Amino acid sequence: MGFEIEPKGDGSALRVFIDFSRPASPDGRILGVLLARIYARWCVRRMAADAADLGRINRPTNL
Q1: In angstroms, rounded to a whole number, what is the distance separating the alpha carbons of residues 29 and 41?
Q2: pTM of the model
Q3: CA 29 to chain centre
Q4: What SS3 class is residue 63?
Q5: Residue 15 in 3-state DSSP?
Q6: CA distance 23 to 30
Q7: Which of 3, 5, 47, 49 is most exposed by smallest CB count within 10 Å?
Q8: 13 within 8 A of 5, measured Cβ to Cβ
């Protein structure tokens, strides 16, 4: 799970990624089917927001 930021033109390109392995137990597989998409969407949104915050924090203020 993580993200990469690359300079692109006047801005940046953000790539967010999540590594996922299906649970081995039957209960885990059921929960994975029910909750994985919701959790992944939440994680991606949080990582994108955190990356945007890093850009605001690290942006030079004298421009």
Answers
A1: 18
A2: 0.62
A3: 22
A4: coil
A5: strand
A6: 9
A7: 49
A8: yes
Extract the tokens encoding 57: 């924090």
DSSP one-letter string for the chain:
-EEEEEEETTEEEEEEE------SSHHHHHHHHHHHHHHHHHHHHHHHHHHHHHHHHHS-S--
Radius of gyration of the chain (CA): 16
What's the token pair of residue 27? 């209960």
- How many residues are listed for the chain in this entry? 63
Tell me which residue of 38, 56, 63, 54 sits closest to 2, measured CA to CA. 54
